[in-house]
Amino acid sequence: MAEHPTHRGRIRPAPENFLSEADIAAVKEGRRDFLRKALITASAAVAAPGLARAAEGDPNILTLPPWTTSLGQAVAAHPYGLPSQYEKGLQRRESPGLTRMPQVSVAFTPLQGLFGIITPSGLHFERHHQGWSDIDPSRHRLMVHGTDEGFVKQPKVYTMDDILRLPPVSRMHFIECGANTGMEWGNVAVPTVQYSHGMLSCSEFTGVPLRLLLEDCGVDWKKAKYVLAEGADGSSMTRTIPIELVQSDEVLVAYGQNGEMLRPENGYPLRLVVPGVQGVSWVKWLRRIEVGDQPWATKDEAIHYIDLMPDGRHRQYTSTQECKSVITTPSGGQLLLDKGFYNISGLAWSGRGKIKRVDVSTDGGVNWRPARIEGPVLSKCLTRFNIDWAWDGKPAVLQSRAVDETGYVQPAYGQLRAVRGTKSIYHNNAIQSWKVVESGEVSNVQVL
Ligand SMILES: Nc1nc2c(c(=O)[nH]1)N[C@H]1C(S)=C(S)[C@@H](COP(=O)(O)O)O[C@H]1N2
Ligand SMILES: [Mo]
């Protein structure tokens, strides 16, 4: 795998404490008092507002930087705001060599650099089976109909204007591709959390419950057992959704993502949101909903997204994403600059509801401590956890283990493989381990 230098993320205690390469070299050469000095300088800057450390020369001399002594930029210099130029390393990335065509590929979310639970829309992972298009919303249509006449009284074709008139709801949910962490089934395959867990994002979605549209078409709830969702891209993406999920009001026909319209890569102008269910069912560029009474066994559910079990049989229609968690920092490819205090931070989620608890181990699963769960804790949504850690400079193995409100406990690799074998691609929710060695380097390892 080609190396991405920007993946060597440092541990970033706070945004104002970013270290230059020279600073890191100083620490590595053993000038270990560097961090302490930097902190003293930082607190001096806080004590005397407006003063900051000189960029060059004697670090103890404080001078006024140009941003204090000059006029800043005009408002609306960027009519649509952009991240700081110093944040360029934080990007969605494709795993080199994973697929032959960039249209039929994945770009992973840089989980190692994110805070809280919401994924900025520009960093939401992307998975396309046939590329993406920026669809003209005035030409987009959603058809709702039945397999035969009995299922809905009045089949309808909706324009975007029709859908935007209906009463909306907004809900925060994670979306995880069923293939997330799939490369790790057999052994360690990728260096960073971006590639091991980055087919995972979380947004506030706004849209209309699918139940409302079905009722508008006069659905017969007694006959309806399943719906089929179809996308408008060339992949003929079609998935069967059980009607109970629709009746529970959780399935949304969504147009909004984090307060604005969906991004084209994520299904603009319309996508299905199926909370707790694997990403493939969240059909993008949604153009058709069919109501029927049996699963359709489409290519995306009969031969793809199936699990090869140890007895040689295939499991189909696995849809719920089981409880899972991962430490996002410190994580693979990062470097601990010195002994001492670190905040271990990570994400936990469950397709079955809320996260109840997350335990963290720093010794490869021998001892566990409960992490602090940060609010809000929402159903089928990412949950942030944090825990204090004083690194003594010795080798360590960091792990997190989540428990959801059903009492389900995230399994170790040994436990998962005892049931599922090693031949799967999808639905790997095993405990992730990050090994820390004396030099401070963090890497991906597997602990059974
Ligand atoms: N129409 C359509 N919908 C689709 C796909 C697709 O290729 N075409 N990919 C699916 C898969 S496999 C996943 S994991 C999610 C990814 O959503 P995202 O690209 O918004 O992250 O969309 C799903 N919906
Ligand atoms: Mo997926």
From TrEMBL:
Does the keyword Oxidoreductase belong to this entry? yes
Q: Where is the Moybdenum cofactor oxidoreductase dimerisation domain?
A: 321-432
Q: Which UniProt keywords apply?
A: Metal-binding, Molybdenum, Oxidoreductase
Query: Pfam families attached here?
Result: Mo-co_dimer (PF03404), Oxidored_molyb (PF00174)
- Can you cite a GO biological process for this protein? sulfur compound metabolic process
Tell me the ranges covered by the Oxidoreductase molybdopterin-binding domain, including all copies.
Answer: 131-296
Superkingdom field? Bacteria
Q: Does the keyword NAD apply?
A: no
Per its Swiss-Prot or TrEMBL entry, what cofactor is needed?
A: Mo-molybdopterin
Example of a GO MF term:
molybdopterin cofactor binding
Q: Which PANTHER family match?
A: SULFITE OXIDASE, MITOCHONDRIAL (PTHR19372:SF7), SULFITE REDUCTASE (PTHR19372)
Q: What's the protein here called? A: Sulfite dehydrogenase
Gene name of the record:
soxC
